[in-house]
Each structure stands twice: as structure tokens, then as C-alpha cells.
């Protein structure tokens, strides 16, 4: 038994991987109309719950939404845009949401630019924003995130779920 543990430890160390069972609470993307694609916020991490965002295309802009769930904090989401409209700015007027099938529309209390760069091909710009709302994540069961700009509107739906999963990490991620 001791020898088996040593072998497993060596394999794990040499491969630089870590795998362990866990439970994840997150906002699961709902692709009800099949008008969006599932998206991953990271290359390594959760196995069953790896698709934690949605992507839709409006004209020449791909919009991806990744809501964050952390117990006891206010709701925030990463909005990732890949657009041919260089200099595009996301403002609080471009995004809103409703929660728990409610009619009330919540506007963001903050929209902050995280990073922007041209794509490798140079024909588009990749832009990451952090959007914060004044509602605790613990109060949300379902949410509808809305994005509106001059090219049109897109709707993204998510549902809070708790799921057993496997988490994996590697130095190669």
C-alpha cells in the first residue's frame, strides 16, 4: 500500500497535475432557444461544470457572458467581447438583468474595463469587462442577462445549480 501511494505521488508530481473531487455551485447556462453556444471561462478546472458561460453573435461582435458565484458577495459577471468595432466601449446602458423570473430590471452599479487587445489576426479586438450588480448571489435562483448595442440585442439565461464534480489543474493550463 505504501509503495502504491509513492507511485501515485510520483506520477502526480511528474505530470504536474492535480485532480480531486469537489462540489461546485455556479450559474449554469440555459441554452433554451439553441441560439447561443456554451463557453468555458477557463481551460482547466471543473469537468462536468466546465461550460459556465454563453456566447452569442450580433453582426460582427461575439458576446460572451460568465456570471460569478461566490457565497455572500454581490453578483458580478465577466463580459467578453470580440469585435471588429475597434474602440468599442461597454457602458451601464448596454447591460441589464432580471432575476428569479421577475419583471424588475436591474442596472449595473459598475462596469469596468479589465483588458483589451487586438486579436492575433489584427482584424478584431478582444475586450474583457467586469460588470457588478447590487444584489447578493444568494438571492438569485435564475437570471436573464441582457446586452444591447447599436447592432441589436442578446439575451443570456442562467440558473443556479449545485453539482458534484471533479476539479483538475495542471502547470500546462
Q: What shape does the CA trace take?
A: globular
Task: Count helical runs.
Answer: 1
Q: Helix share of residues?
A: under 10%
Distance between the termini: 31 Å
Structural classification: mainly beta
> Which sheet architecture does the biggest sheet show?
6 strands, antiparallel
Low-pLDDT parts are: none
The string of secondary-structure elements, in order, is HEEEEEEEEEEE
Provide the residue-averaged pLDDT.
Answer: 85
Number of domains: 1
Tell me how many strands there are. Answer: 11
Rg, Å, rounded = 19 Å
Descriptive tags:
about 170 residues; mainly beta; six-stranded antiparallel β-sheet; five-stranded antiparallel β-sheet
Description:
The chain is mainly beta and 173 residues long. The protein has one domain. It has 1 helix and 11 strands. It has one helix at 2-15; strands spanning 17-30, 37-40, 45-46, 51-58, 61-68, 74-83, 95-99, 110-118, 125-136, 142-149, 152-170. The protein has a 6-stranded antiparallel beta sheet, with no helix packed on it. Strands 1, 3, 7, 10 and 11 form a 5-stranded antiparallel beta sheet that branches. Strand 5 (61-68) and strand 6 (74-83) form a beta hairpin. The longest helix has 14 residues, at 2-15. It is globular. The model has no long low-confidence stretch (mean pLDDT 85).
Q: Which helices and strands appear, and what pairs or packs with what?
A:
Blueprint: H1 2-15, E1 17-30, E2 37-40, E3 45-46, E4 51-58, E5 61-68, E6 74-83, E7 95-99, E8 110-118, E9 125-136, E10 142-149, E11 152-170
Antiparallel strand pairs: 1-11, 2-4, 3-11, 4-5, 5-6, 6-9, 7-10, 8-9, 10-11
Amino acid at each position: 500500500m505504501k509503495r502504491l501511494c509513492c507511485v501515485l505521488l510520483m506520477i502526480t508530481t511528474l505530470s504536474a497535475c492535480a485532480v480531486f473531487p469537489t462540489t461546485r455551485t455556479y450559474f449554469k447556462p440555459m441554452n433554451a432557444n439553441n441560439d447561443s453556444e456554451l463557453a468555458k471561462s477557463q481551460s482547466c478546472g471543473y469537468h462536468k461544470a466546465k461550460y459556465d458561460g454563453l456566447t452569442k453573435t450580433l453582426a460582427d461582435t461575439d458576446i460572451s457572458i460568465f456570471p460569478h458565484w461566490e457565497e455572500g458577495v454581490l453578483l458580478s459577471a465577466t463580459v467578453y467581447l470580440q469585435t471588429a468595432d475597434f474602440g468599442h466601449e461597454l457602458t451601464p446602458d448596454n447591460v441589464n438583468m432580471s432575476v428569479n423570473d421577475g419583471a424588475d430590471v436591474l442596472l449595473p452599479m459598475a462596469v469596468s474595463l479589465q483588458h483589451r487587445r487586438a486579436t492575433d489576426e489584427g482584424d478584431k479586438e478582444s475586450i474583457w469587462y467586469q460588470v457588478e450588480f447590487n444584489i447578493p448571489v444568494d438571492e438569485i435562483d435564475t437570471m436573464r442577462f441582457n446586452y444591447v448595442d447599436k447592432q441589436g440585442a442578446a439575451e443570456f439565461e442562467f440558473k443556479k445549480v449545485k453539482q458534484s464534480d471533479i476539479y483538475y489543474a495542471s502547470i500546462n493550463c
